[in-house]
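User: I've been trying to design a sequence by hand for this structure and keep getting stuck. Would you show me what you'd pick, starting by listing the structure so we're on the same page?

Assistant: Good idea, let's start from the same input. This is the structure you sent:
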């Protein structure tokens, strides 16, 4: 029996050995290629080295958009104290302390939760500290709190790191969700919501497509990802299999077709420089927001364009955000490009420019307007005016008073029987086709109604209705009018940075001449008259000229009226350099509100652009025509640093009159019988507090510290009061409080 068992064992061993040998043959020769390919896939892998996206700069050198590291904050909020099924606290074996099982101990949670919520509020100001306290506390109070609770997406990496480093919180901050790190790269707008639609938003959180400049220049900003092979060294450790470089590696596919896998170097994206100027953008947005809040609109835009180049220096697109309860740049709501509307009276400029092609139409042509309204025939031919009562108006007065009846009289008299002629002239002059600006935004079709459908459609067209246009199209037309007929395309990108050099985008001419130079100059004079004597006189000023047109378009919804108020024009009218358009949508009553926003923007430009002093802007401080008069026509300050004051007078090209140019402190005195007006040395008496009324904070602090006093500053502006008062006796080292206003 023992021999039988031995033989059986030998036989089984032999069979097993043969089976193993046969398996080795199959693995090595029959299925060898398949297994070698599988092993290669496990030991060799391809990796992508993402390229860094280029920055977007403003034309004044500020970073508008860049790539930053952000994190999604997830917390493990299991309650730190173990409780039994009845909800009672479970103590340790000696019944001394509660058993803590959560990632964040209860003591650490209570100690630092206020700090965490404050940090989150500061990182995301739109959400209050209480919001985070309620959100985190509500989840932690649950019997089965989440081990991976999303608190906030897009937290700055520094804030996320500070929370992770709080004592007792390290284990509670989740670092990976579904195998993916919570740390990621994301585009950030450095100035927050400012110019958001122009810069561009990501379409979806995980999407690689953008709107705005980000989308239009994506191929330039994105760059080229690096691709390279890695080989596994040990578990979790990979090393580069091939040196970085361009190399073609055959890769077999399922169809036995050999494809080519290209390994390539990483090339970071190039940066671009936008046409936006942060100074002008800031004043455009703040002025527009203030007007919308004051007058109750739902949306609006403010555009500023450089006339010769077509560069858009400011583009504010604000719409009401019901969640934030304010006006802001709402994603995918580019008001200037995407909103189309009936422009109203700002379109009268287009119609009148077209009519001036007829030699019979002249500026001094008089028309009978029959008081407030006129019937041009039929039930729907009655046109009304809301302005002064007149029997007749010239073309100039029609524009000044924005008379609907007057415009209809012109159209009826000269183009009633050739309506298509007027329409074709307007369509040739006005950019009705898509402008395709270099920002990704939806552009809707604009149009003109069929003017033969009814008399009403034709008459409406004559004063800005029966047509729908976008704000950017209207701005482009006015810009061409100010440039004596040369129409350029609006551009939002100034150029691309190639190394340290900016390769600029030149002007793109859409139409060399939309009208004759004579017609353009005639229209400029009419638009200047609108501001000087007509509906735009609320922004009339003596510093520089403005040529522009007010507009009000009425809309009716459910028997209720709302209005679009607008103002479009160019400045300085003596030598136009800039064109600006402001639109306030759906305000509850008509008026000239948009013109005030225009004025705020133009004032800012005139103050900043030094070139305008060479281009026709009137002197801010006009000289006296009669030197014998004692009226002061130049700026003065009560007290100041003499050397700096002399420099300031030199800048504004005004004479600096003083009896002592070497005195550090000076004070202004009016002329008397024995002395001339001018600046005289100011020497405060020793032991008495200097009189600082009217001084800047910088000068006042320097003067008082020179006397040996400590200074406390309250407010901003110039000194309006001080304590102790000027001339009071005070010891050195005493505190002097100056209040600024």
């Amino acid at each position: 029996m023992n021999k039988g068992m031995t033989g059986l064992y030998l036989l089984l061993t032999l069979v097993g050995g043969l089976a193993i040998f046969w398996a080795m043959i199959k693995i090595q020769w029959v299925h060898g290629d398949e297994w070698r390919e599988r092993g290669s896939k496990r030991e060799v892998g391809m990796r992508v080295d993402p390229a860094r996206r280029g920055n977007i700069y403003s034309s004044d050198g500020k970073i508008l958009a860049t790539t930053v590291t952000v994190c999604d904050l997830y917390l493990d909020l299991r309650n730190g104290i173990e409780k039994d099924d009845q909800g009672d606290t479970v103590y340790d074996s000696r019944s001394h302390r509660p058993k803590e099982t959560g990632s964040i101990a209860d003591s650490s949670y209570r100690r630092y939760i206020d700090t965490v919520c404050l940090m989150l509020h500061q990182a995301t100001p739109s959400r209050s500290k209480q919001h985070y306290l309620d959100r985190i506390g509500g989840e932690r109070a649950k019997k089965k709190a989440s081990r991976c609770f999303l608190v906030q997406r897009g937290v700055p990496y520094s804030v996320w790191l500070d929370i992770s480093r709080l004592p007792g919180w390290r284990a509670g901050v989740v670092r990976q969700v579904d195998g993916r790190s919570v740390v990621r790269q994301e585009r950030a707008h450095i100035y927050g919501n400012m110019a958001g639609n122009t810069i561009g938003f990501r379409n979806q959180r995980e999407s690689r497509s953008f709107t705005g400049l980000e989308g239009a220049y994506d191929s330039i900003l994105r760059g080229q990802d690096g691709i390279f092979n890695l080989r596994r060294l040990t578990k979790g450790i990979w090393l580069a299999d091939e040196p970085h470089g361009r190399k073609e590696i055959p890769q077999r596919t399922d169809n036995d077709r050999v494809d080519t896998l290209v390994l390539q170097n990483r090339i970071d994206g190039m940066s671009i420089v936008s046409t936006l100027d942060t100074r002008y953008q800031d004043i455009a947005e703040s002025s527009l927001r203030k007007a919308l809040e004051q007058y109750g609109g739902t949306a609006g835009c403010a555009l500023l364009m450089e006339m010769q180049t077509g560069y858009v220096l400011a583009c504010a697109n604000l719409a009401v955000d019901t969640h934030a309860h304010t006006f802001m740049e709402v994603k995918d709501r580019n008001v200037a490009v995407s909103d189309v509307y009936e422009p109203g009276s700002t379109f009268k400029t287009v119609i009148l420019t077209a009519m001036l092609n007829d030699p019979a139409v002249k500026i001094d042509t008089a028309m009978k307007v029959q008081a407030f309204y006129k019937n041009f025939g039929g039930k729907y031919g009655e046109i009304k005016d809301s302005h002064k009562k007149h029997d007749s108006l010239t073309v100039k007065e029609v524009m000044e008073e924005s008379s609907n009846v007057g415009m209809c009289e012109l159209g009826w008299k000269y183009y009633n029987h050739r309506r298509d002629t007027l329409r074709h002239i307007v369509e040739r002059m006005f950019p009705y086709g898509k402008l395709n600006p270099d920002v990704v935004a939806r552009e809707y079709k604009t149009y003109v109604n069929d003017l033969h459908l009814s008399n009403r459609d034709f008459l409406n067209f004559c004063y800005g209705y029966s047509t729908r246009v976008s704000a950017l199209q209207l701005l482009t037309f006015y810009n061409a009018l100010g440039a004596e007929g040369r129409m350029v395309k609006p551009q939002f990108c100034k150029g691309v940075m190639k190394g340290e050099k900016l390769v600029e985008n030149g002007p793109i001419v859409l139409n060399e001449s939309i009208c004759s130079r004579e017609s353009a100059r005639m229209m400029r004079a009419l638009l200047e008259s609108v501001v000087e004597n007509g509906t735009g006189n609320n922004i009339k000023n003596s510093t520089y000229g403005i040529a522009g047109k007010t507009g009000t378009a009425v809309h009716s919804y459910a028997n209720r009226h709302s209005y679009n108020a607008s103002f479009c024009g160019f400045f300085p009218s003596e030598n136009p350099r800039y064109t600006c358009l402001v639109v306030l949508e759906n305000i509850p009553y008509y008026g000239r509100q948009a013109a005030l926003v225009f004025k705020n923007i133009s004032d800012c430009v005139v103050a900043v652009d030094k070139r305008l002093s060479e281009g026709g802007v009137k002197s801010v401080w006009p000289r006296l025509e009669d030197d014998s008069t004692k009226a002061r026509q130049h700026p003065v300050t009560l007290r100041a640093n003499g050397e700096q004051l002399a420099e300031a007078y030199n800048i504004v090209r005004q004479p600096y009159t003083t009896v002592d140019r070497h005195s550090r402190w000076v004070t202004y005195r009016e002329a008397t019988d024995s002395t001339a007006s001018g600046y005289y040395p100011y020497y405060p008496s020793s032991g008495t507090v200097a009189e600082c009324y009217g001084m800047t904070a910088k000068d006042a602090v320097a003067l008082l510290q020179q006397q040996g006093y400590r200074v406390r500053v309250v407010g901003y502006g110039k000194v309006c009061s001080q304590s102790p008062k000027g001339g009071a006796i005070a010891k050195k080292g005493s505190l002097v409080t100056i209040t600024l206003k």
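That's my pick for every position. To get oriented when you compare it with your attempt: The chain has a mean pLDDT of 82. The chain has four domains: 42-62+193-274, 69-190, 280-310+334-542+564-614, 639-740.
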